[in-house]
Batch of 2 targets.
Target 1
Amino acid sequence: MKKAEMTGYMPVRLYTGAGCVMQQAEELRKLGTKPLLVTGRHSAKVSGALDDVLRAVDGPYALFDAIGQNPLLTDCMRAAELAIQTQCDYVIGIGGGSPLDAAKCIAVLTANPGMTQDVLYSLQWPKDPLPIAVVGTTAGTGSEVTKVAVITVPGGRKKSFHHEAIFPRVALGDPRYTCSMSSTSTASTAIDALAHATESFFSRKANELSQNYALRAVTLLMPELKKILQQEELTFDDREILYNASIYGGLAINSTGTCLPHAMGYLLTEQHGLPHGYACAMFLPEFLKINEQEQPELTRKYFTETGCSYGDWLDIVTGLLQEIHVEIPEEEIIREHSRWIGNGSIQKGWGEITPEACDEILRRISQE
Ligand SMILES: [Fe+2]
């Protein structure tokens, strides 16, 4: 008999809704006396999130506002130096997935001055990271509720680390901040959330709880993705639905991690500069096709319980990717072959996906 199983661990004090940063200012101030604020160059300012956080902190702080679209380990090291010099005792990441993941990494590096990349990724940290708070300004990453940070290491590879000590203590999600996103960012981050939920649902590590988070995310996302595809003006309610869906997606991957689309999507971001969400979504139709063959019942459940037909799903996903073209030269496919050998994320999915099958997927993606 199949064992019913629900497992999960998510110790983040999560608050969402309009005005939550000011309403929960005390939650931030409780974390320490002086935060390092970690942001990208634009979204924290344009969205109004940085101003709100400054008002909520209402005291001394230091600011590192140079986190790029794919956070570099070298930038995290520079930010940690600033935090040490200015004696910050907690970190607040403000922005999309990049500043939030960077904040997690910086919290580790600041607590452990001079830490090398090897020690960081070994997870053998002499001291616990500084307390972390995050304020999301996009609706996709789900990093608010995960113990994962994805950082680009020297050489250009995106590499993640997972550790319970990097769960944010506090996450504040005001969907109003997502209203200033461009239509491209809105689409790319929303489809990233769809990838999180879909990959998690079809992961071998999924359980009853994570699958329900994933199904809820997909149910919320598909009508919104249709509106995005049809270039409808999104209302605040739409933004709130998208934000909540991204949190459900984060809760799902918190138990399972991601699968093939993320593993292979990293390549398209690293080598072809594709925004993260689009890069992963390029592999979603292939991923669904594999699951339809390997897990027909699970696939049926994915569609019936989310109220979306396979045909509509495919129309929406491929419609959103219509403008995205990537040409992957054969030399690149050969050069990158080894990264699919023994790839844990790919093996977490159903079916025996060989490295040669990954090469073929890249050739098909490239032709589209
Ligand atoms: Fe993602």
Note: The mean pLDDT is 96.
Target 2
Amino acid sequence: MVVNIDDDFNFLVRKISKSSGIILAGYRDSYLRRRIDLRMKAVGADNYTTYTGLLEKNQTEMKEIINALTVNVTEFMRDKTPFMFFREEILPDIMERKKKSKSNLVRFWSAACSNGEEPYSIGICSKDVLPEDWSISIYATDIDEKCLKHASQGIYSKDQIKNLDSSLIRKYFEPAGEGFKIKSIQKLLIRFQKHDLTSEPPISKHFDAVFCRNVMIYFNENQKIKMLNDFYNSLSDDGYLIIGKSETLPGEIRGLFTPVSAKEKVFKKV
Ligand SMILES: C[S@@+](CC[C@H](N)C(=O)[O-])C[C@H]1O[C@@H](n2cnc3c(N)ncnc32)[C@H](O)[C@@H]1O
């Protein structure tokens, strides 16, 4: 009998998709294979069929593989310089525009926010730069409910906040056991919500900036184009799009966004 490894692999991916509700069909094949192979090694399964059988019996392993496929590595002000650019260039520009239109409400979307470090970083920068009486609203979405729960609790280790100056830590955190807890004022700014960027419509409109960092790398071209079109429609005129340092915009949608900083991967809606 000839064993078709690709069929076994596709069957396994469909099984994980069905159980998790995550549409994995569009994720890059090489990415899925790398992550699944690592889990298989960890549990001693030497082929896709054995691993599928294991997943059928073992809910804990099913959770492990879902976690492994939706990696949520992140930290406060990840990469630091894009957030410096946000404070020093983007926020002052948004402020000027708002003053002209006599508004004091700013709206941001942290798309694929993982455990909340990114939306809290956006909140901290905005609170620090914008006048006190301005309203800040941040939507923070992710496909992973476990991440969203962690995010809404707002408790982090010392390592996760290592990029923050000590003055910001004093201002926006309080000690909690071995780690730090975000003060309630920051939590009030942020609405956490489950959302799949590849299959659902955008959550809202008129954002002044959308942060979507370090998730596009997992998507295929069609998923990227769908998501970036959604961001285009969700942004207000001249709104900003901030993507991950190692990410690029597909050629098809370049006409929708113009680069503001190639180094920091910041774009503006055309
Ligand atoms: C590496 S983290 C990025 C976190 C943060 N944006 C950053 O740059 O530090 C990737 C996140 O994307 C989320 N994710 C993966 N696929 C997704 C999808 N289809 N829709 C929404 N979020 C997704 C994962 O759950 C994970 O939390």
Note: The CA atoms of residues 40 and 95 lie 51 Å apart.
